[in-house]
Amino acid sequence: MAKKQVLGVFKTADNAVMAVDRLHESGFTNRDWQVLTGSPYPEGAFGEWMPKHRLYAFPFFGAIVGFTVAILVTAGTSVANPLVTGGKPIIAIPAMAVIVYEGTMLGAILMTIIGVIFESRLPRPVMGLYDTRITEGYIGIDLNCPDDRVNTAEMVMRQSGAVDVKHQK
Amino acid sequence: MSSTVHDAHTAHHEGEGEHHYQPQVLTMPHAEVTQTVLRVASTMGRTYKLALALFGGLFIAGFIAFIVRAQDGFDTFTPWGYLMATFAFIFTTAMSAPIFSVTQRMVRSHWRRPMGRSAEIMSVAGIVGALMFIPLVLMLPNAADRKSIWFGFPGAPHVYQLAGLIGIALLGMAILYVSSLPDLAAIRDHGKGWRKSLATKLAPKFRGTPRQWKGVKAMLMVLGALYFLFLIGVHTMIASDFALSLVPGWKDAIFPAWHAISGLQSAVASTILVTFLLYKFGGYKDYISVDQFWGASKIMLALSLLWMYFWLSGFMIFWYGRQPVEQALIKLFFAESYRFPWAMAVCLNFAVPFLLLIWNGARKSMIVPTIVACSILLGTFFDRIRIYVASFSVADVRADALHNIHVEPFLENPPPHLPGTADVFMILGGIGGAIFLIMLAMKFFPPISIWEVTEGMLYRKKKRFLKREIMVMGKPD
Amino acid sequence: MQDRVVLGHTPQEVDARINRELLTNVLYTERRYWIIVGFLALVVALAGGAVGYMVNKGIGVSGLHRPVFWGFMITNFVFWVGISHAGVMLSAILRLSQAEWRRPATRAAEIVTVFALMTAILFPIIHSGRPWRTMYWAFPYDFARGIFPNVRSPLVWDPTAITTYLTSSIMFVLVALIPDFAVARDRTKGVAKAIYSVLAMGWRGTPRQWRLQIVAGFLLSALILPVFVSVHSIVSWDFGIAQSVEGWHSTVFAPYFVIGAVHSGVSAVVTVMIILRWLFHWENYITKDTIDSLGRLLIVVATAWFFFFFIEILYSIYTLEDAELGLRKMQFFEAPYSWLFLTFILTGYFIPVPLWLFKNVRRSFKWMFITTILVNIGMWIERFLIIVPGLARKQGLTFSWSTYHPSVIEILLVIGSFAFVSMNILLISKVIPLIPIYDIKEGEILKDEIKIGKVTVPAAKREE
Questions:
Q1: Do A46 and A61 reside in the same domain of the chain?
Q2: Which among C5, C1, C2 is positioned nearest to C440, based on CA atoms?
Q3: Which listed site, A56, A159, B122, C373, has its alpha carbon 20 to 30 Å from C31?
Q4: What is the DSSP letter of C348?
Q5: What integer is the mean pLDDT of C166-178?
Q6: pLDDT in tens, B20-44
Q7: Strand intervals (E) in B138-226
């Protein structure tokens, strides 16, 4: 069966929680809806489903890449231009360590940024159902609903105090 | 486990992909805390008694070894290197431990409440430390006719060294006394036997009036600030007089600061280890949770990184300087004579903490922070050997220059000085004596601060927030 | 006791007010804003002209000559690298320690970092006299005859470290801006809305997105802190690893520079926040509590800095070497350095820190503004005193002992750098909210209180 998005906009978090409870009573699970808020709420405040993320893997990968590139650049340029300065060895580990450290950290940080954007599933060319009041303190419950249950869902949301309910066209 | 303890746990939510951690919130009655802690602190099991006897015996053996070694006199430095290293180890670990309690109380962290007292109790090791320090300080040549941080002040370095060390030992014990005052009053009111009579003498008038509470807290702040300043100062003085100025040509401004950082790192490590032992074997399971280990291990990780950073900051300058004395110093302390203890120190004080504690899951456990704490303590022990045994052996190589150190830079690299039987017993005796005193003190001063734990209960509550339980934490002031 | 501002009685009132007040400058601009920006742009243009003049005429128009070849420009470089340490350090440490009072301070601090760093990096380039040639020394490419940059030289480390720090700081700010771009997207129309929509990348505020924001805040903080420490350490090694200049070859330089940077940087953040509060009417967000907490932090930082300053001096003179004693004598007792030293030590520590011990001073915007400005006067002079006297004496066999007099060009450059940073901060405030909107809103949600007897203690909901 085809599915449609239904967005309920609530004035208070308590109303949103009430809607969530009633949706569950109507047979929906927390995998069917997600809450949209204008600021972070403590995790689990709405009983929402929280998928796992793999952000922690990104900096490690970035660090390995950064480390390798920095080693190659520093060692490579030193060998390519073997000029002895101040009696130091050509491959001077303490000196190289500084650049390798920066390279490693840069790699880790850049990959973390990419990871955050990727894991947040951004950029999102099509936003889907949304209401600008969400950034003004309203709470949105975005329900993924089978076609034939849209009316039920809307009724549940309105009964729970939704100030507005929007449907996907 | 008391039914009124909300244990640290991971809460599960319906169909949730991940769990979230909930900190421990104690809700038991004040009277229950007082009774339990006083009961546990006043009973001594068979194993405890055996351990006390063992460490007491080691202390006596160490003292005998000291007498034996003293027969050869105090004219040369080398034979006393291991005694110095042991003293420095006790100073860096147990004697520096109260700094953990002091700083955490200043930043008003709640998780430190059950572990601050054990850090303060370790200050009693200052008694053993002071005993070991007296002969060592008397060995130092007068600062009047040599180059040192004292610039020929009268009485330097002996008077200032002794004043500094005794000062820090007394300050540590003063913090222990003031912070225990309300708990001593509880022993006075509910204890038995010698504990009751001693507590009555120590806390005769504490009744818990607002004025008295304010006084206790203000005193702790003042003593804490003084302790902090003194601790950094004494680390600086000891590092200067017993290492830097004994090695001709060693000019290293970061070394004393690095010594102090090592002290802070070891202070946290000692406290974590003792807290774990109290949890596992001490009978205080209701009051200690993973929160304490989690909070402290973050600090331990930061200090381990700083430990390495401070060392590297100094090393880079020497490595780049490449002056003969700088090369000799690198060979002595890191690359040749004492490279084994140095390698151990790098592994145990930096690599192990770094590789284990970067993982949040590891920090959020009891066992990993404890393993890291043991690693740091062992590493610090090797490191003190590296610093002081090496410095003492150089002082002898350059014995002719003792009264005019720095006239000629140090260039010769003495061979590593290995410990003899007497050294081994002095090491065991020193450390055993410190542990003996700490264990003894824990049977009088409650190792869990009753008043701070119960105060913490006022400021940490569990509350329902929408569909989950959440902790609400009050920050007074 | 904390003074809490009530922003509204319903979540909508609170959020609408936060949006309105914190997007003030983005959505509506007061006339005085443009007057200030215009004035700063004029000063920047003058400094730009000075750079052009120097490039045209050569470095000889500066006051640099034998033996002092590092003067105002390098001092200014070190100073601005120092200021850049405020931001991210403050933001990162406070995020990691979950200090509630961090919320209004983090973004402004990060922005100070970004622009201070951009300004800092300009100075060695300008100082080279032929700015385009700096690429040959820093970029790992053989522009001619197989001569690659020498990785053993700290002059290669500097650009590496600063580029890493600058890139990281910009990314740190941008990631945290995504939710606030969404707020701006929802409140603007036309072209502005289109631009903010692109910048917000389709942000909706799902739990996953918020979760990632929070985790990223912690993770990036933990990753940027070691970078921030490394940057000023590397700058310190520009001096430290040279053994030929008296007073520079000191093992304590790296942490001494870092803690000095934090001291001047946090002070600069306080100054900037007080100015922004006045300019944009942010009385509800930058409160007495905020500057009180920063004042307490400053006491600790300043005292730690003083300890490093003390041991740096102590261990440089304890070996009683003539050259070192001569340098210190010159720094402390011979004019004009003695006057500079006195000004530095008074303004850098002995005037502000005792004042900060008083709660009334810490909670006074006027006094905190004055004292933090004083700190930065002192810390600028500190950098000058580290760099110039050592070069002026250099070494025993140098054949020309001479002091240094900055030229008008260099003075203009220094003044211009302050105008450049200020102008950029004001310009960016036209595009982004300088107080993180979502962070303030989160603080409002987590705000709570505990009743103990007759007292109500301010509290916060904590997840961990």
A1: no
A2: C5
A3: C373
A4: I
A5: 94
A6: 667 888 888 889 999 999 999 999 9
A7: none
DSSP C100: G
Do A102 and A142 fall within a single domain?
Answer: no
* Residue in B9, B16, B364 to test binding to A, most A beta-carbons within 10 Å: B16
Q: Alpha-carbon distance C464 to C459, whole Å? A: 14
Q: Is the pLDDT of residue C65 over 60?
A: yes
Number of structural domains found in chain A = 2
Which residues in chain A are closer than 8 Å to B17, comparing Cβ atoms? 49-52
| Domain architecture of chain C: domains with CATH | 11-460 (1.20.1630.10)
Q: Do residues A29 and A13 both lie within one domain?
A: yes
- Report residue C179 CA to chain centroid gap: 25
- Indicate whether B357 belongs to any domain: yes
Question: In angstroms, rounded to a whole number, what is the distance separating the alpha carbons of residues C59 and C56?
Answer: 9
B8 part of a folded domain: no
Based on the fold, state whether residues A65 and A110 are members of the same structural domain: yes
**Phi, psi of B180, rounded to the nearest 5 degrees:** -90, -10
| Single-letter residue type at C298 | L
What is the span of the domain harbouring residue A21? 3-51+128-167
Taking contacts as CB-CB distances below 8 angstroms, the residues of chain B near C2 are 475, 477
SS3 string of C271-321?
A: HHHHHHHHHHCCCCCCCHHHHHHHHHHHHHHHHHHHHHHHHHHHHHHCCCC
SS3 B359: coil
- B223 is a domain residue: yes
A115 and A149 together in one domain: no
Which domain, by its residues, includes B468?
23-473
Structure tokens at C198: 């692109």
Instruction: Specify the 3-state DSSP secondary structure of C209.
Output: helix
SS (H, E, C) chain A: CCEEEEEEEECCHHHHHHHHHHHHHCCCCCCCEEEECCCCCCCCCCCCCCCCCCCCHHHHHHHHHHHHHHHHHHHHHHHHCCCCCCCCCCCCHHHHHHHHHHHHHHHHHHHHHHHHHHHCCCCCCCCCCCCHHHHHCCEEEEEEEEHHHHHHHHHHHHHCCEEEEEECC
Our count of domains for chain B comes to 1
Q: What is the pLDDT of residues B289-322, one digit of tens each?
A: 999 999 999 999 999 999 999 999 999 999 999 8
Residue A87, chain C, CB below 8 Å: the answer is no
Q: Predicted ipTM?
A: 0.94
- Phi (first) and psi of residue C145, to 5 degrees: 50, 35
3-state secondary structure of B473: strand
Which residue blocks in C394-464 are alpha helix, DSSP H? 408-428, 437-446
Chain A contact probe: residue of C171, C212, C251 with most A CBs at under 10 A: C212
| Within-domain flag for B7 | no
C151 touches chain A (CB under 8 A): yes
- What percentage of residues in chain B have a pLDDT greater than 70? 92
Specify whether A45 is located in the same domain as A20: yes
Torsion C102-C107-C108-C111 (CA) sign: positive
- CATH number of the CATH domain containing A30: 3.30.70.120
Neighbours of C163 (CB within 10 A): 15
- Sorting pLDDT into bands at 50, 70 and 90, what band is C190? very high
Same domain, A18 and A45: yes
- Report how far apart, in Å, the C-alpha atoms of C311 and of each of B36, C328, C414 are: 48, 14, 30
Pairs across A and C, CB distance < 8 A: 206
Which residues face B469 on adjacent strands?
A: B464
What is the rounded end-to-end Cα distance, in angstroms, of chain B? Answer: 33
Is the same domain home to A61 and A47?
A: no
